Amino acid sequence: MSRVIAIDGPSGAGKSSVSKRVGAQLGFLHVDSGALYRIMTWQCLLHHIDTANPDDVAAFAQTVNVTCLPQNGAIAYFVNGQPPGDAIRTPEINAHASPVATVKAVRDRVTAWLRDLTRFGDLIVEGRDITTAVFPDSPARFYLVASAEARAERRRKEEIEKGIANQSADAVKRSLLARDAIDSTRKYAPLRKADGALEIDSTNLTLDEVVQTVIDALPKEWKRGRA
Ligand code: DC
Question: Tens digits of per-residue pLDDT, 100-140?
């Protein structure tokens, strides 16, 4: 049986950096579940699907195929043999991803892909519904939060560093809060802290401190001889 560390939280709370580091330290494959919702969104836009029409999105979702393979400590995704790269990280995808992720047929498909990844070994999976819906039985579940200002600043820096966009701090914060609102009020698998998940507020913590908090809270036998 493979083991799963589940990490949920809003955008910019630090899930990716923390998951990558913990995964590398323990030898668990890093899984970015948001990238699968972004791929769905990207494909909808490429095929001129109206993302505000849930029926059209649901029908189209059945036709999207993603190949998932372990690569350099993470699960890499391929669409028609190609990695999507930064095409799924643009402000346009940011704006359309939350409505696409409200569609049940999309969520069901992504959830099935995620559960199937356990065949590759131990996983650290980050997202919005990993602790509540995808792997609710994991004994290692975390809810990572940070202030809206800290999250917006991290996202803004990331977009500039990657050369994706150069938006004002306020614009990034507005887009982030708009997505939070959709993600946490949607009907299916909304973002919320799961009962029994450990909440970590990363606003005033360094990356090392958050990583250590996660590792300290893991079942003892998961870190034997590692951390
Ligand atoms: O984490 P992210 O910003 O890459 O996520 C992109 C979108 O996908 C975001 O609007 C929330 C949604 N998402 C989700 O609904 N469930 C997940 N497990 C992961 C992401």
Answer: 999 999 999 999 999 999 999 999 999 999 999 999 999 99
Interacting residues of 22 by C-beta distance below 8 A, sequence separation 6+: 5, 28, 124, 211, 214, 215
- How far apart CA 94 and CA 179 sit, in angstroms, is 8
One-letter amino acid of 24: A
The helix-helix angle for 169-185 and 148-161 (nearest 10°) equals 120
Cα of 34 vs centre of ligand 1, distance in Å, is 4
Cβ atoms of residues 188 and 99 within 8 Å: no
Residue 62's identity, in one-letter code, is Q
pTM of this prediction exceeds 0.70: yes
**Both ends of the chain: CA-CA distance in Å?**
21
Return the best residue to mutate from 8, 37, 45, 109 for the ligand 1 pocket (most ligand atoms within 8 A of CB): 37
Task: Tell me the backbone φ, ψ of residue 167, rounded to 5 degrees.
Answer: -95, 160
| The 29-32 sheet, strands edge to edge | 67-71, 74-78, 29-32, 123-127, 4-8, 140-145, 198-201
CB distance 126 to ligand 1 below 6 Å:
no
* CATH class of segment(s) 4-219: alpha beta
Alpha-carbon separation of residue 195 from 42, 127, 131, 199 (angstroms): 33, 16, 9, 10
